[in-house]
């Protein structure tokens, strides 16, 4: 078990040093420093949460609420800082997917070669 944990720590350090992770952290910092971006994200998240709570309680959702969410989503995706973050996040997610695929690929049992026909 110690060997697996040591390897996991090594992987964590390697990810931390990877350029895609570094770009993600930098992009996150830029979003947090951009008052317009954070305000747009906060407003959008609050509106989405309000609708989700109503859905969970099976309460009706007003057309105005749906329009408001769409308007707020538009403000979020129109923000250049947020757009750059989303591109960086997608790039990082692609790296994580490839890494997970590699790990799960090693967990699958090897495929058996068919026996040669005589």
Shape: extended
Segments where pLDDT lies below 50 for 5+ residues? none
Q: How big is the Rg?
A: 22 Å
Reported for the largest beta sheet, the result is: none
Number of helices: 5
Structural class: mainly alpha
Counting structural domains, the number is 1
Q: Determine the strand fraction and express it as a percent band.
A: under 5%
| Helix-strand topology string | HHHHH
Please give the alpha-carbon distance between the first and last residues: 45 Å
Compute the number of strand runs. Answer: 0
Provide a descriptive summary of the structure in words:
- By secondary structure, the chain is mainly α.
- The protein has one domain (19-106).
- The chain is built from five helices and no strands.
- Helix 2 runs antiparallel to helix 5 (80-107) and helix 3 packs antiparallel against helix 4.
- The longest helix is centred in the last third of the chain and has 28 residues, at 80-107.
- It is extended, with a radius of gyration of 22 Å.
- The protein starts with a helix and ends in an 11-residue tail after the last helix.
């Amino acid at each position: 078990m110690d060997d697996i944990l040591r390897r996991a720590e090594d992987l964590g350090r390697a990810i931390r040093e990877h350029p895609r992770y570094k770009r993600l952290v930098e992009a996150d910092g830029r979003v947090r420093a951009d008052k317009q971006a954070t305000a747009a994200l906060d407003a959008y998240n609050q509106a989405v949460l309000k609708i989700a709570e109503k859905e969970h309680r099976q309460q009706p959702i007003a057309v105005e609420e749906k329009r408001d969410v769409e308007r707020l989503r538009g403000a979020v995706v129109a923000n250049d800082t947020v757009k750059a973050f989303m591109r960086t996040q997608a790039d990082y997610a692609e790296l994580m997917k490839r890494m997970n695929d590699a790990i799960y690929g090693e967990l699958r049992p090897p495929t058996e070669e068919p026996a040669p026909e005589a």
